[in-house]
Structures are given as C-alpha cells and as structure tokens.
C-alpha cells in the first residue's frame, strides 16, 4: 500500500509511524534502504560526531510510536537554554522556556536510528524493510490512466525485484532520486560553506545544559551539550577554513575553537559604543534588564577521529506531492544547520503526513489520491517556507562585517532579546 | 389503489450524460409518467428498453424500478466515472462525508470491530453503484460489497477499476442488474443497503423501498442520499448547478422526481422501516467540498433501519460519538422507537415546500 524510499531518520520514522497507526492495521508498508542492516549491538562508549537537536514536538512524534522510550534508555542530553551572540559586538540573545523546562534534546543520530529500528521490528508483520536495496527505475501512473496500464507506481529494484504501490514516499535525502524521477523541480543553492563536526571534551565538568552559538563572520559555531563533560561541535565555515581545521593537529584545533568563542578580535569601538548606548537605553525602559549573559565553556580536547566535514546548501522542492508521490525530509527541503531544525522539519512532515494518511485510510480513500496529499503539502509548505526563509536571512545577515549591517543586527538582536513578545 | 405496474424503474448515481432536456424534458417526463399508468404505454417503454439493454435484461415481470430515459443519460458518460476532476467530481468529494456517515453509524451499532477494517463482516449492497465510487471505499474499510447498476458500461468501468487492487477485487463484486432481479435470489442477505443519489432517478420509489426491505436482514440499515424538492433545490440544484456553473451535467436531474424528506420518511415507515436520522448536506462549489448542515432544503441523507413486523424491540439511539480520527458526522434522532406506523414529522420542515399534488410517488391508501 505504501512504499517509503530511504531508510534514514525521517524515512524510518515515517515507516514506523504508519506501521503503528491503528488505521493501517491491514495495510502493507515497505521501507527501502540502500544500506545494510545495523545489528543492535551495544552503544559505543565514545559519542558519535553526528548529532541532532530534537525539538519537543519531534520527541512527541517519536514517543507516539514508542521510539522515544528507547532513546531515553540509550542516551541523550536535554538542554534548557540557548545563548546566541555575535562576534562583532556584544549583542546576545538567549532563549529558554518558562519554568526552565527542556527546550530540546541533543541525541546522536545513531541512537535515534537504533530506537527507530527497534520499533520497526515490533510491527514487522506490517512493515517490511528491504535492506541493501536501491530503486533503479520508476514507472509513474498517468492521472487518467488508460485501459491496461496499472494505476499504481511501479518500482524496479537493483536486484530485479518489482514492487507496486499506491503511494510512494520519497525520504531519500537532498539528492532525492524520487524527486528527480518524478521531475519535480528543486530550487537549490550551494552555500560556500562546509560544516565541521567533532566531539569535544570540556576543560571542566559543569551543568552542561546550555546550547551555545556564536555568529562569526565566516559562519556560526555551535557547541551542543552531550553530557556534563562532552559537547558536540558544529562549525559552519568556508570550504578552505574547514579543510584547514580538519588538517590541523588536535591542539591547534582546540585553540581555534576556544578563540572562536572567546576572542573579541572582530569588535570595533564604534559598534561597541553603539551597542552599549542601546543597552543603557533599553535598561531605562526595562529596568528588569535583559537576561544574564553566561560564559561558554572552554574546550580542553577533541576526540581523535571524530572530526568530519560535510558541505552545506539550501534546497526546496517546488512541489511536495504529485499523484501517488509525496516528499518528506531533506528530499523536500534542505536547510542550514544554524537553527538546528533540519531533522525537526522532517519529523514535522512525518507527523503531518501520517495524520492525513491515517484519516484517509479511515475514510476508505485511495491513499495515493492527490486530494489529501495536497492538504499535506499546503500545511507543511506554510510552516517550512517561513522557517527556511528566516534561516537563510539569518545566515546572510551574519556573514558580513560591514559596519552598518553589524550595527543593525546588533541593535536588532538587543531589541529582540529585550522584548519577550518579539522573541 | 395500487399504482399501475410500471415498465421499469431505473436508478443511477448522480452525474453523467449531456442530456439536453431542460424544462421541456421535465414536462415530457411528467406526462410520460402519467401515460405509464395506462398499459398502452407499456409496449412503447418495453421497446425502448429492449434497444438499450441486452436480452437478459427483459424481465417477464413487467414490474420494475428502472427508468429507461435515466439509463440513457448515464450510458453516455460511463467512462468518466473515475476522473476526479471531471463530471463526477462532486460525487467524488461527497465520499468525504457520506463514507464517514455510513461508517460511524455502523460502528456505533457494533460492539467490537477489527481495527483497520472497521466494516469487516458486513455485507453491503450498493444500489445504483455507477462506476463504483462508493463501493470501493466501503470495500477498503473491510465490508463485502455487492454493487449493482443496470447500465452495463458502468459495471464494466467499475470492474475494471477495482481489478488493479487485489484486496478490493475480492471484497467488491459488481453485477449488471436491477434491484428487482436480485430480490428473488437474495432475500434477507444484506446487512446494509446504500442508495446514494439514486432515488431521484427511480420511477417507482415505493417498489424500490419494498425491494430494499425484502433484501435487507432484520434490523439492517438503509442509507439514502438524495435531493429535496423545494424551490431552492430547483434554483440551486438545477438552474445554477446544471445551467449556470455546470457542476452537474445538464439534464441529469428533473425537479419533479426530487423527493422531499417527509415523503421519503412516510414511504419508509409505511414499508416497515424506522427512520433514524435525516441530515441536510450542502455542496460548496468554490471549495468543491460537502458539509453537513441543519436545513434539508437541498441535499440530505437518511438512515433507516428495517423493523421487525410487530414493532420489534426499539433500538437504543445511536450515540453521536465517533471512533478514531474522523470528521464528525452528526446523527440527530428523529424516530426514537422502531415503529412501522407512519407519523408526520413535525419539526424542521423546509420553509419552501411546494405543493406536491401530482407527484406519482405518493402512495394513496
């Protein structure tokens, strides 16, 4: 009835969500994954360098089919506060929820995958996972099909097997083959940036429940807590700098990180004065003042072998759905990691699509019918496009040292930090 | 005075056929019906039917519910059923409210059901199934559906469309036949009968309902959706829908054949049904969506249950709750007890009811 192409975080979550849905009890779902099956072994002691920031909404989705419990039993770190500041000025903004509840969770991607795989096995009679399978060809149905052609999507796998399905869900990443074969236009743009990831050890143990991000002119650097002594680094910077960072020895690498967080080299007197003036003006209007500025941790060492880099870009498919096809996750939209939203958008797609498909199944509808797929598309595009636009604007705004722009963004950030409604 | 045997009653789903009749056609049909009362019209109608049906359709009994003119209308567009944006788009979107209505009503009456197959174990007869637009969703929800339609082309289209889905192909069966034909072989075999957008195309409504009664199991359910006969339905349902906006092919409906809910209720109750719910429906041509509403002046849906002959045990009123995540389908109560004696509906009569003096549907007793 449904084939999900792509067994990554978003694809597996989609298959699991449908498999656990009560209205899909008699339906058959297939998940196509090009990689091999990961044996559920013990979790390695060292942290993996690929982590994701999971929002409470995504955690709720994972919890809805029982995967979040597995994550909790493995490992994760919640954070309560996020502090974001500029390298060119003193402006900063911090986010936290009322009552200091968890704002989000930092979870290694491997942990999420393990949890999802476990939940997929629970519903194995409905969800069949095809490992090491890659689709090589698709036959699309015509909307008004002729006499003998099947109205369903035909998928040909590399090993010659053929599947046919009422609905094909493409969750195969930003180079989605489903999207390309369905001839859905993708507006994409490669940033001149790569992200460097690593696992770091802090110089001293602390209550590590704050996520730190500083906007450098070359790109944002972020420190995401993994435990009281370890954090994960995500540093988006130019391609050359990224390769340099990977090539340097560990000591120099750690020094660059620390200086990125602590150095005031990009400050200018002018901006500092302007910033201070604005701050005193704000404190007149709001005597309670703005949030307290905390100091980020300093890094002592980096896990060997944990440095890696990957290129960044942005992309958005012009259509998320077509007759009998739907795109979710990075296949539909790809964002910069500066807001930590990439996988959360994907999980949001999963939640929305599952809801629409479940209602359609309960109404006895044909699952691949464009009507309810379009409703899914409208709902998600409204949400995704605005978030992607803001992320892109922020990235461009903070990638310059031009004084007027810095001034504007300094004041803007200070103002936003001072005004709760704006935040 | 029993009504004269009619040549044939024909029932079909809404939609179909660019049949250019307009007001002239309405008059023609009205007079034609009067003629049918006299047997001299019989040979003429039978000949017409012969030319349309295949030989096996000629019944030895001259009683029938099929209206040959109606049949012609639907024959022309039999290949257009499954075009969701085409002539039948309003019917496709009607599934969004009629399937939940049927499903929730039936679920409320069952004590337990299989998750994922809420209607499993039920045998449903879809009268005037057309291309199978309603049969397929009901089949997907687990029911065993038999769809009947006199127009062979419709059955062919329906069979072809279901053939691609192996599960549907087993659950849904189609037959090209009229209601009377299957009465003999299927007395009390169906749990549910669905006659959606059919009774306004039927020539002898009373006989149609009697046939439904015979084919239903005791305490079985009958679901009907049709159009009310009011000034509003003439203006919006025929003039605007057919001639101005064109959401319904011209000539599909004749206002004379529309059935007011009071009349339908009267007929149902005098034939041994107890009417459980009558809900108004409204189509919004801008959004292409149907919704429930209080007033029944345009379209409405009816749920009735077959009673035991001697006023059997009254059914508990189905609660208006729904199961699972579904759109709400309202189930207001009208007849609290399963009482076959006819009674007048006092409340909520549509404001613009016209004089129905010459309607041939009325049973004179």
From TrEMBL, chain A:
Family, per entry: Belongs to the UbiH/COQ6 family.
Any single Gene Ontology cellular-component annotation: mitochondrion
InterPro entries, per the entry: FAD-bd, FAD/NAD-bd_sf, Ubi_Hdrlase_CS, UbiH/COQ6, UbiH/COQ6_monooxygenase, UbQ_mOase_COQ6
PANTHER family: UBIQUINONE BIOSYNTHESIS MONOOXYGENASE COQ6, MITOCHONDRIAL
An example molecular function term from Gene Ontology annotations: FAD binding
SUPFAM superfamilies for this protein: FAD/NAD(P)-binding domain
Gene3D superfamilies assigned: FAD/NAD(P)-binding domain
Protein name: Ubiquinone biosynthesis monooxygenase COQ6
Key word Nucleotidyltransferase present: no
PROSITE patterns found in the cross-reference section: UBIH (PS01304)
Gene Ontology BP term (one): ubiquinone biosynthetic process
NCBIfam families given in the database record: COQ6, Ubi-OHases
Keywords from the named record: FAD, Flavoprotein, Membrane, Mitochondrion, Mitochondrion inner membrane, Monooxygenase, Oxidoreductase, Transit peptide, Ubiquinone, Ubiquinone biosynthesis
Span of domain FAD-binding: 299-360
Cofactor(s) annotated in UniProt: FAD
């Amino acid at each position: 009835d449904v084939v999900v192409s792509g067994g990554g975080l978003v694809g597996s979550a989609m298959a699991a969500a449908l498999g656990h849905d009560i209205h899909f009890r008699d339906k058959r779902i297939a998940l196509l994954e090009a990689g091999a099956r990961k044996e559920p072994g013990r979790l390695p002691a060292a942290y993996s360098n690929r982590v994701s920031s999971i929002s409470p909404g995504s955690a709720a989705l994972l919890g809805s089919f029982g995967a979040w419990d597995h994550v909790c039993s493995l490992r994760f770190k919640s954070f309560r506060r996020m502090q974001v500041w500029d390298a060119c000025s003193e402006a900063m903004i911090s986010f936290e929820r009322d009552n200091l509840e968890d704002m989000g969770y930092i979870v290694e991607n491997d942990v999420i995958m393990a949890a999802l795989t476990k939940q997929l096995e629970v519903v194995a009679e409905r969800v069949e996972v095809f490992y090491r399978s890659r689709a090589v060809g698709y036959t699309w149905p015509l909307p008004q099909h002729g006499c003998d052609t099947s109205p369903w999507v035909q998928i040909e796998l590399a090993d010659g097997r053929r599947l046919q399905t009422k609905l094909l869900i493409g969750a195969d990443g930003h180079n989605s083959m489903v999207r390309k074969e369905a001839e859905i236009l993708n507006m994409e743009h490669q940033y001149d940036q790569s992200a460097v990831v690593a696992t770091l050890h802090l110089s001293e143990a602390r209550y590590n429940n704050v996520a730190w991000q500083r906007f450098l002119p070359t790109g944002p650097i972020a420190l995401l807590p993994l435990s009281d002594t370890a954090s994960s680094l995500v540093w988006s910077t130019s391609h050359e700098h990224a390769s340099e960072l990977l090539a340097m020895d560990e000591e120099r690498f750690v020094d660059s990180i620390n200086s990125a967080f602590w150095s005031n080299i990009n400050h200018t007197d002018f901006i500092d004065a302007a910033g201070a003036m604005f701050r005193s003006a704000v404190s007149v209007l709001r005597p309670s003042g703005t949030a307290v500025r905390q100091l980020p941790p300093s890094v002592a060492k980096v896990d060997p072998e944990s440095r890696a880099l990957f290129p960044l870009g942005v992309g958005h498919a012009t259509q998320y759905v077509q007759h009998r096809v739907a795109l979710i996750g990075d296949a539909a939209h790809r964002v910069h990691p500066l807001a930590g939203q990439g996988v959360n958008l994907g999980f949001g797609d999963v939640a929305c699509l599952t809801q629409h498909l479940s209602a359609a199944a309960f109404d006895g509808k044909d699952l691949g019918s464009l009507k309810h797929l379009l409703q899914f598309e409208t709902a998600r595009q409204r949400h995704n496009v605005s978030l992607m636009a803001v992320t892109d604007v922020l990235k461009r705004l903070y990638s310059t040292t031009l004084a007027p722009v810095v001034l504007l963004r300094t004041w803007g950030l200070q103002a936003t930090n001072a005004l709760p409604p704006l935040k | 005075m029993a009504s004269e045997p009619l040549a044939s009653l024909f029932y079909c789903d809404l939609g179909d056929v660019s049949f250019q009749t307009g007001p002239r056609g309405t008059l023609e049909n009205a007079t034609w019906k009067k003629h049918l009362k006299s047997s001299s019209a019989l040979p003429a109608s039978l000949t017409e039917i012969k030319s349309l049906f295949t030989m096996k359709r000629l019944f030895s009994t001259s009683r029938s519910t099929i209206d040959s003119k109606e049949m012609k209308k639907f024959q022309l567009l039999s290949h257009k059923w499954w075009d969701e944006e085409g002539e039948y788009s309003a019917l496709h979107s009607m599934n969004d409210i009629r399937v939940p209505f049927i499903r929730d009503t039936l679920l409320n009456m069952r004590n337990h059901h299989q998750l994922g197959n809420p209607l499993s174990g039920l045998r449903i007869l879809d009268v005037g199934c057309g291309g199978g637009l309603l049969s397929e969703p009901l089949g997907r929800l687990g029911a065993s559906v038999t769809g009947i339609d006199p127009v062979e082309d419709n059955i062919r289209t329906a069979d072809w469309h279901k053939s691609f889905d192996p599960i549907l192909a087993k659950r849904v069966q189609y037959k090209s036949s009229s209601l009377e034909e299957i009465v003999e072989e299927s007395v009390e075999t169906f749990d549910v009968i669905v006659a959606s957008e059919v009774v306004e195309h039927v020539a002898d409504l009373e006989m149609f309902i009697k046939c439904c009664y015979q084919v239903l199991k005791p305490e079985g359910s009958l679901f009907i959706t049709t159009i009310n006969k009011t000034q509003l339905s003439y203006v919006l349902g025929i003039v605007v829908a057919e001639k101005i906006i064109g959401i319904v092919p011209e000539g599909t409906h004749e206002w004379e054949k529309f059935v007011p809910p009071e009349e339908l209720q009267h007929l149902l109750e005098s034939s041994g049904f107890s009417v459980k719910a009558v809900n108004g429906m409204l189509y919004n041509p801008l959004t292409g969506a149907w919704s429930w509403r209080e007033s029944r002046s345009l379209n409405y849906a009816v749920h009735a249950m077959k009673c035991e002959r001697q006023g059997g045990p009254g059914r508990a009123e189905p609660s208006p709750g729904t199961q699972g995540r579904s759109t709400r389908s309202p189930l207001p109560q009208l007849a609290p007890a399963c009482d076959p004696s006819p009674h007048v509906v006092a409340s909520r009569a549509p404001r613009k009811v016209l004089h129905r003096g010459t309607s041939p549907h009325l049973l004179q007793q």
